[in-house]
Amino acid sequence: MKVIEQNMEDPYFGTKELCEKTNYSYQQVYRKIKALTGETINEFIRRVRLKRARQYLLQSDLRVSEIMYKVGFSSHSYFTKCFREYYGVSPTEYVEEKEK
User: Fold this and answer.
1) Which of 13, 69, 73, 99 has the highest local Cβ count within 10 Å?
2) Cα separations (Å) of 95 from 2, 7, 34, 52, 66?
3) Any idea which fold 2-98 has?
């Protein structure tokens, strides 16, 4: 998880890069993450990014677009889609609920 956090801003950081940086094979990383979380490697990386985005939304005054880039998303629509799937609301709606 630390490797993911250190490379979070890189939108191209994914399965291949995680395996290279941890010196484990794809199969080793896949099995370990699947056993621990039930997710694929990409799903796990996406979840880590979305959790960090949520923290930024709660604890900072950064705009959604700034947060999106800080956690490694390069498409606003894809970030919003993923955030909504995971949290049930868009990032903007999440901020609005937080402010109530």
Assistant:
1) 73
2) 27, 25, 31, 14, 14
3) Arc Repressor Mutant, subunit A (1.10.10)
